[in-house]
Amino acid sequence: MIMKKTLFLPIAFTALLLSGCNERQKLSEDLQGVWAGAPETLADTGAAKASMVRLMEFNPTGDNGEGSVTMTTFITVENVMPANDSIVTPLTITASGTATISGIYQARDDDEITLSLDASSMTVNVDPQAVRLNYDVLDGESSSTLTHLKPAASVLATQQITHAAQRVFANLTEMDDIEIKKDLMLCELHHKDLTFRRQDPSQMTGK
């Protein structure tokens, strides 16, 4: 009887380890692909607004629930400058940009992964030509003012988008309560419940 118990313990322990490994690997494989989130508000003070859409790509690289991850945020900022000596009417500055960061992930169990993002990999891209300045009234004089202000507006927009991305990615070390139902994923990031949808690769590549 003692021998049977002695044999049973390592067998049960091994079975438990294999079960945990299988759960981690299944989660990693279920995550594989590109996921897009819904629009989120980052800031809204009246004079300044910022919103974003997240994109996450997971690629399993092993058989123990590990893999690589790339996170991209599409950020839009809007600033309203009140009328002053230089601006006759309020001026609205709108710009969009993307920030991307990469790293690795490790599944901890069947609904949680840890994230290790490489801060040095973060890149930010803002197209200066896409920065829009809108006057309520546009005449010859105000058009000249817009041309003069655009370079500074582009710098401001890039700074805002960079800072917003840094806040989004900072201390992002885990995803909790992951639930995947076909092409729909529910999860928690930074104590915030989010919903993502799996993207069709053929649509993303324009095929």
What can you tell me about this protein's structure?
The chain is α+β, with helices and mostly antiparallel strands and 207 residues long. Helices cover 31% and strands 43% of the residues. It has three helices and eleven strands; from the N terminus they run αββββββββαβββα. It has helices at 2-31, 140-169, 201-204; strands at residues 33-37, 40-44, 48-60, 66-81, 91-107, 113-117, 123-126, 132-135, 174-181, 184-189, 192-198. It has an eight-stranded antiparallel barrel. It starts with a helix and ends with a helix. The relative contact order is 0.16. Mean pLDDT is 84; it is low at 11-20.
Brief summary of the model shown:
The chain has 207 residues and is of the alpha+beta class. It is built from three helices and eleven strands, in the order H-E-E-E-E-E-E-E-E-H-E-E-E-H.
Keywords:
single chain
Question: Would you spell out the secondary-structure blueprint of this structure?
Answer:
Blueprint: H1 2-31, E1 33-37, E2 40-44, E3 48-60, E4 66-81, E5 91-107, E6 113-117, E7 123-126, E8 132-135, H2 140-169, E9 174-181, E10 184-189, E11 192-198, H3 201-204
Antiparallel strand pairs: 1-3, 1-11, 2-3, 3-4, 4-5, 5-6, 5-7, 5-8, 6-9, 9-10, 10-11
